[in-house]
Amino acid sequence: MMSFMDDDRPKKKVDHEIGSDLSMLSVDELDRRIGLLKQEIERLEADRQNKAAGRLAADKLFRS
Question: How many domains is the chain partitioned into structurally?
């Protein structure tokens, strides 16, 4: 159940929403968003590598 207090909290500004309209953005704004998305891709890939390494280690441990 949500209380009426939940609506008073400030909402986090979204820098980019997948599928949003890009027609009103400047080249600089598009470049900024591309940079943000590239950083996010790098973060996701690093986390995926860490999880894959952990899974590989677990697989080796349980195969022994």
Answer: 1
